[in-house]
Specification:
- Helix content is about 45%, strand content about 15%.
- Helix 1 crosses helix 12 (about 235-245), helix 2 (about 45-55) crosses helix 6 and helix 3 runs antiparallel to helix 4 (about 75-85).
- The longest helix has 17 residues, at about 140-155.
- It folds into three domains: about 10-135 and about 350-375, nicotinate phosphoribosyltransferase (Alpha-Beta Barrel); about 140-340, nicotinate phosphoribosyltransferase (Alpha-Beta Barrel), CATH 3.20.140; about 380-430, no CATH class.
- Strand 13 and strand 14 (about 425-430) form a beta hairpin.
- The model is unreliable at about 395-430 (pLDDT under 50).
- The chain is α/β, with parallel strands linked by helices and about 425 residues long.
- It has helices spanning about 10-25, 45-55, 65-70, 75-85, 115, 120-135, 140-155, 175-190, 190-195, 200-210, 220-225, 235-245, 260-265, 270-275, 285-300, 315-325, 340, 380-390, 400-410, 410-415, and strands at about 30-35, 95, 105-110, 165-170, 195-200, 210, 250-255, 275-280, 305-310, 330-335, 350-360, 360, 420-425, 425-430.
- Strands 6-5-4-10-9-8-7 form a seven-stranded parallel sheet. A five-stranded antiparallel sheet has the order 2-3-1-11-12. Strands 13-14 form a two-stranded antiparallel ribbon.
- The protein is built from 20 helices and 14 strands.
Length: about 425
């Protein structure tokens, strides 16, 4: 079977899960699967995917796995106790053939957040491996290793590489579990700790004695749209609850759930000083990096004391380009996913599982990169954009198109702020 350990996932799933246990134990959520790669039909593999998920739901934490997590400084003992009793439940997942989905299948995860949060990464890994075992039954591993070693040479041959470090962020997009292990082994042997910072995969971090890497993902800040006291403060609320849980540890803030402008507006002097840095996952990385440096300086922080993590569709040449631009100006780190773990020749799948509802309310990711946003309720998405627009332009009145969205989500907006619309030249207050 593809997944044989609950540790075969990204660290941020456990860090977010602990926060959910302590801060949002009663939250209910819904996730949907999407395949962004055109021309892919996954419907022939539905039964096999279901079988793999059923096996996933039989797994429990082993004692040595619990001990490993418990020895991480930011993992608390009550969370380890919870995990000792935990297993995933298949009743929260549906996998069905769907003619409405371009890829031919619909995967929905719905249930208590605490009991569904660990599904995402294993399910994506399952879909990838099932697909490639059928479409590429004899992968050219020699070609894959040749490409990997070329990337290693680029890193080692970079003249000013003293601060250049990469990390593996590729579990969700990997060609296979075994291939990810082979790649990590080579990276450990040929790059070592000098250039290879660690991996987001907890199982392989444990096996190879690497640093497990990760803090928060999009779903955490998305859920705060529904779980916080006011929609306009949802991002700030998310950062505050993270700080409450980790007290300054795991201090890399995700910057692209609402877009760069809303992030910079909310990431004020308090958060600039409290968090160690920020992660970029969509939009133009050069522009974002420059703006972050200016933002830190404007908020009385020495940029050289902060860290920028880049993780959006990176290749090693792109990493080197970003490194040359920002090295010595601010600390940088690079999380490479698909280009490390699925570069054997065949076109990788671009697949995601994204949260679409929390406590029955729609939630959204508004991306700086076209096509990377996700929301299953277009009216809510329009409303959220207008909310952010009003915050950015408080002296400018929105047009009547906002009124429809506002009325639809009036209960969400109550208590947020005065909203005024001009209708036929008449000011109307809500």
């Amino acid at each position: 079977m593809i997944i044989e350990s609950l540790l075969d996932t990204d660290l941020y799933k456990f860090t977010m899960m602990q926060c959910v246990l302590h801060q949002f134990p009663d939250a209910n959520v819904k996730y949907r699967f999407r395949c962004r790669t055109e021309g892919v039909d996954l419907s022939p593999y539905v039964d096999e995917i279901r079988e793999e998920i059923e096996h996933l739901c039989t797994l429990t934490m082993k004692e040595d796995e619990l001990d490993y997590l418990g020895n991480l400084r930011f993992i608390k003992s009550d969370f380890v106790d919870f995990l000792s009793l935990f297993h995933l439940k298949s009743k929260y997942v549906t996998v069905a053939v769907s003619s409405e989905m371009p890829c031919g299948i619909d995967i929905v995860i719905e249930g208590p957040w605490l009991h569904t949060i660990l599904f995402e990464i294993p399910i994506l890994a399952i879909v990838n491996e099932v697909y490639f075992r059928h479409t590429v039954p004899e992968p050219d591993e020699e070609e894959g290793m040749a490409r990997l070693r070329q990337k290693i040479r680029w890193i080692k041959n970079e003249p000013d590489n003293g601060n250049l470090k990469i990390s593996d962020f590729g579990t969700r997009r990997r060609f296979s579990r075994d291939w990810q292990r082979k790649v990590i082994k080579v990276l450990c042997e040929e790059l070592g700790p000098t250039f290879f910072a660690g991996t987001s995969n907890v199982m392989y971090a444990k096996e190879f004695g690497l640093i497990p890497i990760g803090t928060m993902a999009h779903e955490y800040l998305q859920a705060c749209q529904a779980l916080g006291p006011r929609l306009r403060d949802s991002q700030t609320f998310g950062f505050e609850m993270w700080a409450k849980e980790y007290r300054g540890d795991l201090g890399i803030a995700l910057s692209d759930v609402y877009g760069t402008e809303p992030f910079l507006r909310d990431f004020d002097m308090f958060f600039c000083k409290l968090f160690d840095g920020a992660r970029h996952d969509s939009g133009d990385p050069e522009s974002w990096g420059e703006r972050m440096i200016l933002h830190y300086a404007a908020n009385k922080c020495d940029p050289r004391s902060k860290t920028l993590i880049f993780s959006d569709a990176l290749t090693v040449p792109k990493v080197i380009s970003l490194y040359r631009r920002f090295n010595h100006r601010i600390r940088v780190g690079f999380g490479i996913g698909t280009n490390l773990m699925n570069d054997l020749g065949p076109t990788p799948l671009n697949i995601v599982v994204k949260m679409v509802r929390a406590n029955g309310q729609p939630v959204a990711k508004i991306s700086d990169t076209p096509g990377k946003g996700m929301c299953e309720d277009e009216t809510y998405l329009a409303y959220l954009r207008q909310v952010d627009w009003i915050r950015a332009h408080p002296s400018v009145l929105p047009n009547g198109s906002f009124l429809t969205a506002f009325r639809h989500y009036r209960s969400i907006a109550q208590g947020d702020w005065p909203i005024w619309c001009f209708l036929s030249g008449t000011a109307v207050g809500f």
